[in-house]
């Protein structure tokens, strides 16, 4: 953790894959855009380290969940774009529902609902 | 499966992917920089910020590559390739490391294979560790023992309480004839219970029974070798009648290939002993070997006590007085002196292996220090710790692997050499490679290589690279590591000294054995045997022997030929009681002399030397008052300080009749019993006058002017021209006989000397290596010292002194250990007492000279350091 960004949240193990897949649901994107998107969407709470992003992208590619293609970026440069495959879509659905169940469970434990209050 | 094909496809697109990854990361950097620039940084600042953000590009690339799969395999291949390249790039280091390993591994593997075959492999008998041999203890001869008599065997068998059963064997050569060329084969007579005592079964057919033994039925059991060689391995041999010594015998069984028994593995025929009645009561007919099986739970000690008591009781009435017996485990009998030789050599090869490992450790540590900087640089450039370790691991394995292959390549020829160490009493002359030992010693080598090969990677990757780089080339080995390396040097020097001194002792002993006066001229002397069982009639026998000798002398290249009843150097026994004229009958008990029957030309042929009197000549014809030639031992024992010439003796304890033989000459000692055997009194009689003995002059000696081997066919033809059916056997030269008898000594000497020289070489390489390492490490310090006024002589001395101090410490320890090692191997010294001080002095000189050289070279390099350059090295 860098001392100058104390508010930043460290990515949970295994969640990067889910975030990448979710980001690509919106449409194909290159690595840099994916990282920025995650950072922006999380209101700068999450920062994706390049050191983990590219290995993750290539790992997902190896699993067949995302597929690369060389296209021109909006600035007209050649960039490696990734898009979600059918397999990746199915994986995203499964991961997402797993994550939602998990975060609901976490929320229930961390903020218990007082039965008397109901 | 799908993922496999995907990986395969990727593998083919490997180069594309590599380029793509770089382009992708480049794009990322560009994109990041652009963004920073938009945020207001200058172009330069933005680019650096982007780089900082991305971190170590090489590491990202490597981590990404790791997700492609196959990388592990690729890395392995790359590391192995890198390892091999390093081997090629540092030929001196690699050659030394691999050779060192190969010598250590090869030596110990070959030695252990021999030790296993001779000392450890189970003998081909049921529960062989329960089998013992029993020998008579006559005239305090101590351990060597004397052959028991069949009469004793009968008594022991009947009365003992410690053995389940006792069997006996007797010599009995056999001439096969009839079905093809007459052939003499080694044979042995055995009692009917021989097979059950050993617990062996025939391969096919059956063995003979006690009943057949007692009744004297003519049946034989043959060896696997004879069966294959003469009878083509056909089972129809069973029941066949074959002619043995001119009498028909029925073949009833064939023993398995691995079967053998004392006294030689070459025995081809086993026949019933069928002791004649007179032999069953004669307590002086010492020609049997007795093997017995201990009762379950019986200890060797108790058996020894019990048998000693029984033997005294059995021989109570012997006119020589009662005697005890010696009981020894069969394994000890079979291996004999070889056991000590093997143990000594195994220890030596283990020491060599140890030295090799120590040296290797030193080499690797020295190189590791040199590479510490490389490790630091690579760590700084982004190499992960695991990656570095994996690479050093593979490199070390390449070295260890090549060393193991080299060891295997050395072990195989070494084993062929060691095969000559297998005693003649044992089977399986062919040694098989012991894979477990190869695996073990290669394992040790690999562990050493890995331990010391990995050290730099571990150390290097633990220390933060910037520290290491800041440190420059000085390294951080420190005093502790020097101490470790120095102790390694002392250890290997000490071991080398032990090997060298013991090798020196063996060498002295061997030289002594080589210089033993055989009493005959051994060069160009051919010997052979012509069994004379077909010439039972005395006159016909004399005529035949003289005729064949005449024909042999006529062969071009033959200088002389003679006959003798036992080929010199080969037979330890064949002795008889004798009585000197004027002695009382009682003194016979103590008087035993070797007896030999010779032809007139025998002494001249072998080149014997006369002390006084004469050898036999034409005047010695068949007569009532025959002549005798005695040896010096006989003369000195019976006629101290005076001449035995003219004195008379007769043979046999009870023979009232018998000729009186007149001593006409004294011959200087001939080593009739063997090169290293003790000398005994001996009496020689001439063929024409030996009508009163059944000792037949079947041995022929031929003195040649040409290479003895070249006249062998002519000698055969000469004998066959006299008698077409005369078997001719055991053709060999005296030199071959001598070589064989000294083979254990010569081989252990050769091997130990070789081990010792290698050890010396390795130890000096060790000294050299450590000092060179120290010089490399301390170049900087040397520079400073010289800059502060030290002369190059000071530097030379300081390094040279260190090398010599290490050597001297090792030498001191080694010499002390050498004294202990020398005690271990007294059995190999044949009673000879080599001078330890001489060996120690020689070893010290050689070692100091070698060590001085090994220290001088690096020390001189240190003294030639140019302080300017050394300091600039920083």
Tell me the overall shape of chain A. Answer: globular
Q: What's the architecture of chain A in CATH terms?
A: Orthogonal Bundle
Radius of gyration of chain B: 38 Å
At the first level of CATH, the class of chain A is: Mainly Alpha
Name the quaternary structure: heterodimer
Q: Residue share in helices of chain A?
A: 40-55%
Q: What proportion of the residues of chain B is helical, as a percent range?
A: 40-55%
User: Could you list the spans of chain B in which at least 5 consecutive residues all have pLDDT below 50?
Assistant: 472-477
With strands numbered from the N-terminus, the spatial order across the biggest sheet of chain A is 1-3-2
Between the first and last Cα atoms of chain B, what is the distance in angstroms?
56 Å
Provide the CATH topology of chain A.
Arc Repressor Mutant, subunit A
Strand content of chain A: 5-15%
How many beta-strand elements of chain B? 23
- Class per helix and strand makeup of chain B: alpha+beta
Topology:
The complex is a heterodimer of chains A (118) and B (874).
Chain A: H1 15-25, E1 29-30, H2 31-41, H3 50-63, E2 66-72, E3 78-84, H4 86-110
Antiparallel strand pairs in A: 1-3, 2-3
Chain B: H1 2-12, H2 14-38, H3 43-54, H4 57-66, H5 71-89, H6 91-120, E1 131-137, H7 150-159, E2 163-171, E3 174-177, E4 183-185, E5 187-190, H8 194-198, E6 204-205, H9 210-215, E7 219-222, H10 224-231, E8 241-244, E9 247-254, E10 269-272, E11 289-294, H11 300-314, E12 324-329, H12 330-335, H13 338-380, H14 385-418, H15 435-462, H16 465-471, H17 478-514, E13 525-529, H18 538-553, E14 558-564, E15 575-580, E16 592-598, H19 602-606, E17 610-613, E18 627-631, H20 632-638, E19 648-651, E20 661-667, E21 682-686, E22 699-704, H21 712-722, E23 729-733, H22 734-741, H23 743-777, H24 779-787, H25 792-824, H26 836-863, H27 867-872
Parallel strand pairs in B: 5-10, 7-9, 16-21, 18-20
Antiparallel strand pairs in B: 1-11, 1-12, 2-5, 2-11, 3-4, 3-8, 6-9, 7-10, 8-9, 13-22, 13-23, 14-22, 15-16, 15-19, 17-20, 18-21, 19-20
Helix pairs in contact in B: 2-3, 2-4, 5-6, 5-14, 6-13, 6-14, 6-15, 7-11, 13-15, 13-16, 13-17, 13-23, 14-15, 17-23, 17-25, 17-26, 18-21, 22-23, 23-25, 23-26, 25-26
